[in-house]
Amino acid sequence: MPIETVNPATGEVVKTFTPHTSEEVNQKIEAAEEAFQRWRHTSFEERATYMNRQAEILENEAETYGRIISLEMGKPLKEAIAEVRKCALACRYYADNAADFLADEEVETKADRSLIAFEPLGVVLAIMPWNFPFWQAYRFLAPALMAGNVGLLKHASNVPQCALAMEEIVRKAGFPDNVFQTLLIGSKEVNAVIEHPHVKAVTLTGSEGAGAKVAEKAGQEIKKTVLELGGSDAFIVLEDADLDKAAETAVKSRMVNGGQSCIAAKRFIVVESIAEQFLQKFRENMQALKTGDPLKDEIDYGPLARVDLAEDLEKQVKRSVEQGAEVVLDGGRENKDSAYFKPMILKNVKPGMPAYEEEMFGPVAAVMVVKDEAEAIQVANDSRFGLGGAVWTQDKERGLRVARKVETGAMFVNAMVASSPEMPFGGIKKSGYGRELSYLGIREFVNQKSIWVE
Ligand SMILES: O=CCCC(=O)O
User: Fold this and answer.
1) N or C: which end of the chain has fewer CB within 10 A?
2) What parts of the chain have a pLDDT lower than 50?
């Protein structure tokens, strides 16, 4: 795919970029390694100073960067601004806590002294997606730099301006040269970067296919990976749920980022005694959403990020309907050249249908009616994915019990799944492995070293 900015709202090619040559990439890797040899010896205080300055830049210029996000991938400007502000939170969180998270841990053994030290690994490659082009990169960047690592970003080909903007923000914040650089390369060039001896680890957020390829290559090179892949989160509505709140949140959770979020609710598993009531509210709320120009304040969702993504979603819906899914809210695309896709709700979604088995990365909700809590848990777990999920019940203890039985990296009771700097983020099954955010995230790319003194 060419590296270019295409405005998904209009289809206009706004700017094209010349990819870095392999020689340029090698120079950047060498420069990253040189930067690492100095950066690893800086204090947490010094790193935190730059990180906090970076947070200020993100907060003060949230609209400027938000506009780049909206231009490149089509999310409403207000959501893009919120995304940039969330990055500032992650910067401040790790600026405040990294020293504690990575402090030596004394351990009682028969030695005179034994401890676990956490030391940076070196150059880490981050392969990031277009859906939250700032947030996904920052949740790597903030802990990685605070730990004393340096970063190389290979961003999705449709968000080069976002990638370059982040490099610029790091520079403006005063970080030393080359601690964070963007590589303008295609996915074919990634293997050579992973192979490079200076590159010590890889983190990828993206598709299952991309994750498998990167993990395979990194495995050959014996390099650590963290993979944050797809999700098909269950949204379980039990008979004692607050249905108004559940239906309102169901829409928010399906439509977050225009439906293009790995942790968006995708499978709505509803107990039969309240299914019709829930569905009616869900449908009404979904129908009320407004679309249009991403830069307009009054819209709720913009276009999908690319026309081919809208085409793929359309095909998944078509195949599901051919196999018996019932359309209870009709939507989809108005013309074949458009990336706009109106929300849809499908009912009677059954095993074997794309809406049941695959991730639907756009505004299509799959509804499954079940007889009780036990069947809801069974259906929720009948998925290749295991990223997040939600359960709705007014009995919090029951919610907690159900949450423990659903096989995912995160469960939310009476709330939509969302990431926050304090809580670990990541999945199980085909949703990947490893964790981002929290103290667990910063410990992924460090040498957890045992030191024994007699
Ligand atoms: O697409 C997945 C990440 C979404 C988020 O962290 O809010």
Assistant:
1) C
2) none
The amino acid at 355? A
Minimum-distance ligand 1 atom for the alpha carbon of 129: 1
Amino acid at 430: K
- Which residue among 79, 127, 131, 132 is best mutated to probe the pocket of ligand 1, counting the most ligand atoms within 8 A of its Cβ? 132
Whole-number pLDDT of residue 1: 86
Task: Indicate the helix (H) or strand (E) that contains 428.
Answer: strand 428-429
CA of 419 to the centre of ligand 1 (A): 6
Q: Which pLDDT tens digit goes with each residue over 363-390? A: 999 999 999 999 999 999 999 999 999 9
pLDDT of residue 302: 97
Give me the pLDDT at residue 334, please: 87
Strand-pair partners of 412: 390
Out of 419, 422, 431, mutate this one to test ligand 1's pocket (max ligand atoms within 8 Å of CB): namely 419
- Domain hosting residue 173, numbered range: 3-229+429-453
Q: Whose CA is nearest to atom 2 of ligand 1?
A: 262
Measured in Å, residue 398 CA sits from the centre of ligand 1 at: 27
Tell me, yes or no, whether 193 and 173 share the same domain.
yes
CATH for 363: 3.40.309.10
Contact criterion met (CB below 8 Å) for 418 and 75: no
* pTM (global) more than 0.90: yes
User: Residue 180: beta bridge partners?
Assistant: 151
Residues identified as active-site: 228, 262
Check whether residue 237 and residue 222 sit in a common domain. Answer: no
Q: Are residues 262 and 331 in the same domain?
A: yes
Number of domains composing the chain? 2
178 and 271 co-located in one domain: no
Whether residue 412 contacts residue 388, with contact meaning beta carbons closer than 8 Å, is answered with: yes
Q: Does 249 share its domain with 225?
A: no
Distance 228 CA to ligand 1 centre (A): 10
259 C-alpha to ligand 1 centroid (Å) = 11
Give the Cα separation of 222 and 217 in Å (integer).
Answer: 9
Taking the CA of residue 260 as reference, the ligand 1 atom at the shortest distance is 1
